[in-house]
Amino acid sequence: MAFEFNGQSIETTATGYLVNQEDWSEDLARAMAEAEEIGELTERHWDVINYLREEYFDNRENQPNTRAIIKAMSDAWGEKIKQDALYALFPFDPSKQGGRIAGLPESRRKGGY
């Protein structure tokens, strides 16, 4: 499969994940979010995206589950958040859909929580 972006064809897997993580950019993330009907990426979206990218690229390709994202975002935002706050940002699973928009490979772990 491919994702059309700025006149280029960006190669993706059958489930929409980038084949080459080097193809990722913030502009591509915005276009992917729009295609998935998330709308404009807010500061909180970017907090999750950047956290997922940091965990993957700086922590031995770790791909946090939803529980870990809740804890990290609660710390980052200075408030205790619940799962529904993350699903409001990424309705099709914060760890999976967020990871896809963050340009990460598809997670092979089971379960989201």
Automatic annotation (TrEMBL):
InterPro entries, A to Z: DsrC-like_C, DsrC-like_dom_sf, DsrC-like_N, DsrC/TusE
Organism of provenance: Sinisalibacter aestuarii
SUPFAM superfamilies, per the entry: DsrC, the gamma subunit of dissimilatory sulfite reductase (SSF69721)
UniProt keyword Cytoplasm present: yes
Record-stated family: Belongs to the DsrC/TusE family.
Pfam families xref list: DsrC
Annotated gene: dsrC-2_2
Name by which UniProt lists this protein: Sulfurtransferase TusE
Transmembrane helix in keyword set: no
Compartments where found: Cytoplasm
Keywords, comma-separated and alphabetical: Cytoplasm
